[in-house]
Amino acid sequence: MTFTVRPISPAEHLDHVRSRRSVSFLQTPAWAEVKTEWRSESLGWYAGDRLAATGLVLHRSVPRLGRTLAYLPWGPDIDWAGGLTVWFPPLVSYLRSQGAFAIRVAPPVPTDTWDAAQVKDGIADPGVARLTDLPGRPDPVGAEVTRYLGDSGWIPQNPTDGFGAGQPQFTYEIPLRRPDGTVRSEEDVLRGMNQLWRRNIKRAAKAGVEVTTSAGGADLKAFHDLYVHTAERDHFTPRPLAYFGKMFAALSAEDPERITLYLARHDGDLVAATIYVRVGGHAWYVYGASSTEKRDVRGSNALQWAMIRDSLAAGCDVYDLRGITPTLSTDDPHVGLIQFKVGTGGQAVRYVGEWDLPLRPILYRAFDLYMRRRSR
């Protein structure tokens, strides 16, 4: 089959997203309204007059050169098992014609998974430093996508340790359906958690932690205040309040159930807050914040359990806790993140990761050097 790639309207793009079981929220037309510092366009793959696939492209311009890095975060939304020789050439041809000096993709395709028991054993084993030291369950589609990209001149952009500037290659996810396709029960998901997580969920309920949801609005400022507090405590750079306002406005306009703010209060005090996003059968924990005070009431555990329960009620396939680092060494400061998430049960997942295709190699090398210097 031969495809052509051409621009489509946001409405056409959204109609296609609604027809899909799972599409990353970073590949919805609403995400273009969030990333206003990038020029964006929705693209469609056509077989004749039939729209077969879509992709959101974010263009980062290079000053004074009139060229762009064309980025498809967690995309494009194509049939990755269908052979990339029919999907990628028309994409490359179109973006080249539009002045892109390079293309960056982040295929939503796993290469390996490790269950919670393996991860726990790896953390306990001093001879294991990384997830990749453990035998994972390989995914043949991920292996083929990786092979195709490597053979076709694409360059991997995945950091060895920690998080890079783009999307995480390693995530932690809870499957919400059984092998026969039926949705798991709450009791089944709880049984998959470790004893500490179950105890903390009960502790939050016994302490009187109240979980409410909000569409943003005035509650967003309360979330942001707590988020800034968390950033100061955990030493990361927080996003401004305006960013979250834009995020809620854009995603809510696309679908009123797309994004939700969860808030945990104890005796009127906000002790934790999270942002939850859902597209079709995929639900994500996107941002979190917690108070240093009253950590013993376990507001964060209460919020996670509320979001998991709501994902089950919505018939979701997966609850995605998003990024982790591959480290399992107890000497690494990043290990606490995977220790927290592995308690939920589920599995660690390695994805194909981000890959670049230089279309103008000299300009690409200059851009790459600039980005490396800026990240130091």
Automatic annotation (TrEMBL):
Q: Which residues cross the membrane?
A: none
Question: Which sequence ranges form a coiled-coil region, renumbered to this chain?
Answer: none
As one GO molecular function, the record gives: aminoacyltransferase activity
Q: Which domain of life is it from?
A: Bacteria
Q: For this entry, list what GO says about its biological process.
A: cell wall organization; peptidoglycan biosynthetic process; regulation of cell shape
Q: Does the keyword Transmembrane helix apply?
A: no
Q: Which UniProt keywords apply?
A: Acyltransferase, Cell shape, Cell wall biogenesis/degradation, Peptidoglycan synthesis, Transferase
Keyword ATP-binding present in the record's keywords: the answer is: no
Q: Which Pfam families match?
A: FemAB
Q: Which PROSITE patterns match?
A: FEMABX
State the family named in the UniProt similarity comment for this chain. Belongs to the FemABX family.
- State what protein this is by name: Peptidoglycan bridge formation protein FemAB
The organism of origin for this protein: Nocardioides luteus
